[in-house]
Amino acid sequence: MSDQPNLVQFPMNTENATKVFKWTQKYEATIDQDRINGNRDRIYDNFSIYSGVNKGQWDAQAIEQLREQQRPAHQFNLVLPAVEDKLGQLNDSPLQSKFLSAEPEKQDDVDLLQKLYDNDYGAGNWETKQTEFERDGLIHTGIKQMYINYERDPLGNVDVRARNPTQTYFNQNWQTDDIKDCRQAFTSIWLNPAQIKEQFHTKSEEVDNAILLTQFSTNDESTNVDQQWDRSAQWYDRIRDQYKVVESTWMERETVRKVFDAQGAEQKEFSQVLYQRMSIEALHEILKNQGAGYRIDEEEMDVCKVFAFCPGLSNHLVLAEGFYPLQLGRLPFIVWSYQNVYGQRQGLVDLIKDPQETLNK
Known about the structure:
By secondary structure, the chain is of the alpha+beta class. The protein is 38% helix and 23% strand. Strand 10 (339-341) and strand 11 (344-346) form a beta hairpin. The radius of gyration is 24 Å and the shape is globular.
């Protein structure tokens, strides 16, 4: 009798496999272009100089020469306290939003909005994430992403997370500080199976099935679009049992529906993804039950789209596709650096690393 469990039989989706293959190629091309520009190396160097971990303020060749000469690789780290001092100054004036109504009769609604914001701010630990964001910007580039978090509520809460700048790639032609000028981004993160299920909760059953399939197969190194997964080191960490998940977000012009009541006030709840995806006939049917006098307008707008995939887990599984859950009229990122001169980003570390290297020598 076989020990293999009864798996939920999801068909191998050729259409999904083609999409994953296409987006994998786009992601790898973006990484190659970034490598040519040397941007990733500069980010890694700045973080190594800041932390000094594993003699990070010395390059590998200098370490080898010092070892041959039997000389110690001294590090008198002045960079870290300089960054921490500046970070402390920024934290002296934390940013928090306060909501006030221009119409006194609507103050109760605004107070409710304030409570929702305060709840998400505290439960999501935004203050700590803001500190990480500011620290990374002082080192080289700070990145925050707005998203829907399903940990505390099945309906989701608005939340933010600090993104690792070494694993985030923005459009190479983006040169300003305004995220509206950036049209596409790739982010990647290493997650274990439980974390994948938590982050992409609508795909839990499919993720379970994909994990079971990988446990009962010997096909470890497949990379072809027709095969089930890619278990190479680029996509799967065997020691930690983690998979690289890649998410692409991009802006696209699309026709968007807006619903107005008899008084001409926009009904914001109908801007949700659910109502944008359904047929116009189905939307009319729903609105008929809301009462007479509504109207539906359609206009061209910039919308944010998303595609998330994980080849190490399955070449046939799409973790997210379609409208990004939060529509902000731009990509859902906030990005800053200590300096940005026409796309050439620098941190405070860049201004003081030469004296640091001289001191170490």
